[in-house]
Amino acid sequence: MASALKLEFVMSAPRLADLPPTAAEVALAGRSNVGKSSLLNALASARKLATVSSKPGSTKLLNFFVTPQGTSLVDLPGYGYASTASARMREAWLRRTERYLLQREGLRLVLLLVDGEIGPTSLDQEVIAWLRDHGVPFQIVATKHDKVKASKRDRRKRDLPAACGVAPSEVIWVSAERNVGIDRLRELVRETLSA
Ligand code: GTP
Ligand code: MG
């Protein structure tokens, strides 16, 4: 079993320029309420490291966490909510995070979280296309595996990757609630940060 990531909260930064430098970094991105903060807590085996919200869109800042090795994780602001899809919303999110995604020195990988229960929204698909177009390395992570009914799992494990434009084997399925896929993701984060 991969042990928990040692993470310490450092600061919430409004903009890229406010973030401390890092040797290597992994970012968590996804729409509001997809489970970014919950996943970060699961990776660290901590309950309250990152704030889990009942109200969507509460993380409006770049939340910066460090490891003992001087590498880091960033919890990015969520974009949109549920099925909301609009170019304007994507633009608003990009205005806040584009500079980070394109210019952050040390950024190795973006974990792009997609809600496993509802699949990618059109906004998710637009963000995936944007990351691809700009050559930003990303890994699709499907969240809330526990909320997908057993009868729908097989089909969802084909449909969700297809809608994201990747192979089924390329998606990591997780449940922060039930500790599904967390070890695998910890290993990926460790490898990525130490490479
Ligand atoms: P913002 O910060 O608003 O962008 O949201 P977020 O992406 O950080 O989501 P957050 O972790 O705050 O979780 C949103 C809601 O989903 C909370 O009510 C969580 O308890 C719930 N949730 C997160 N992960 C899971 C999961 O694996 N399973 C289930 N059932 N619920 C989850
Ligand atoms: Mg959050």
How would you concisely characterize the structure shown here?
The chain has 195 residues and is α/β, with parallel strands linked by helices. It is 34% helix and 22% strand.
Describe it for me?
This protein has 195 residues and is of the alpha/beta class. The chain has a single domain (8-194), classed as Rossmann fold (3-Layer(aba) Sandwich). The protein is 34% helix and 22% strand. The protein is built from 5 helices and 8 strands. The protein is globular and about 45 Å long. It starts with 7 loop residues before the first strand and ends with a helix. The model has no long low-confidence stretch (mean pLDDT 90). Guanosine-5'-triphosphate is lined by residues 30, 32-38, 52-54, 56-59, 78, 143-144, 146-147, 175-177.
The radius of gyration over CA amounts to 15 Å
Order of helices and strands: EEHEEEHEHEHEH
Judging by the overall fold, what is the CATH architecture? Answer: 3-Layer(aba) Sandwich
CATH homologous superfamily (4th level) name: P-loop containing nucleotide triphosphate hydrolases
Query: How many strand segments?
Result: 8
Question: Helicity level, as a percent range?
Answer: 25-40%
From the 3D structure, determine the CATH topology. Answer: Rossmann fold
Determine the N-to-C terminus distance.
20 Å
Question: Mean of the pLDDT scores?
Answer: 90
Secondary structure class reads alpha/beta
Unreliable parts: none
